[in-house]
Amino acid sequence: MNQTVLVCSIALLFSFPLSIPAQGNFSSIDAFVKSTLKGEDRLTDAATGDLNGDGLADWAGVIHRRPADTSPTYQLYVLLRLRQGGFHVAEKSMEEEIPGMGCCWMESLEIRRSSIYIQNNAKTASVMEAVTHQFKLHEGEWRLVKIKSYYTDHGPDTPATRDTDMNLRTGLVIEKKQKGDRKPVTRTRRKKFATYLLKDFDFSIRFGYE
User: Fold this and answer.
1) Most CB atoms closer than 10 Å: which of 15, 32, 90, 97?
2) Element at 8 (helix H, strand E)
3) pTM exceeds cut of 0.90
């Protein structure tokens, strides 16, 4: 190839803005959000913080979509800040229908200690359960590393609570139960967990339990 043509081709390539969706790069978070939201879609929650140890403020956000012909959905996106400027879409979860008829919802999203924490709640007439999934970048994959669950039963019988802390890397499971005014009972056990990835996350409170 002619050297002049090659130089011009390279210059043309880099003249395009970072917000080209096909490349997965965006000049800003606003540019990403504007390119992603359609119709009645909205950004329901977002968080910033360093996710990969480079000292830059990365971003995670949950898009709430309302398709005309199906149930509303959630989808989680993770964008890493580039040192030269802009953001790169590093990962995204499944786009999943929100289960139940108003009984289940995404409560909160945080970034801390280089991890993404996303809490989902489920509620019936007498039972409430809040589950937080912790995802962390490990060897190039966004893995589920911990699950914390808080379960409360306010039924007509004796009220009961159960706190469960599961470490998928070590296999340690700590469960604390209490019924009524009785003394809490804490048990620990070991369990071999499979590998669960953020790209497969479906916003279910049971994700990662099997």
Assistant:
1) 32
2) helix 3-14
3) no
